[in-house]
Amino acid sequence: MADWITTLATLLTIAFGLFGFLAPRYTASALDLEPTASTMGLSEMRASVGGLFVMAGIAALWLDDPMAYAMIGFAFLGAATGRALSLILDKPPVRKVLLFGGIELALAGPLLWFHL
Question: Over its length of 116 residues, how does the chain's per-residue pLDDT go in tens digits?
């Protein structure tokens, strides 16, 4: 069971990353981010929200090493922790933060549980 959950979580990591990688305007809109006079924001979406997660997922599948899967789990845990801090300091839209943070925790949990 752990194998298919790990594979699913890793494929979802790649799929979510592809949104930022291939559709940065859509991803920015979903995250309530707005482009400015520069396209640097789109570059950042493709890099940090997209390519980073796409490549992490591909690498984990290729390496097939427990620590590679755990590192993706730690990345999602870090993202969810950042959202929790944002709830305290920034007062963002609670429902959206809970949705995205819940997805991140749902992916972090099994990747860390099964691979540490």
Answer: 899 999 999 999 999 999 999 999 999 999 998 878 899 999 999 999 999 999 999 999 999 999 999 999 999 999 999 999 999 999 999 999 999 999 999 999 999 999 99
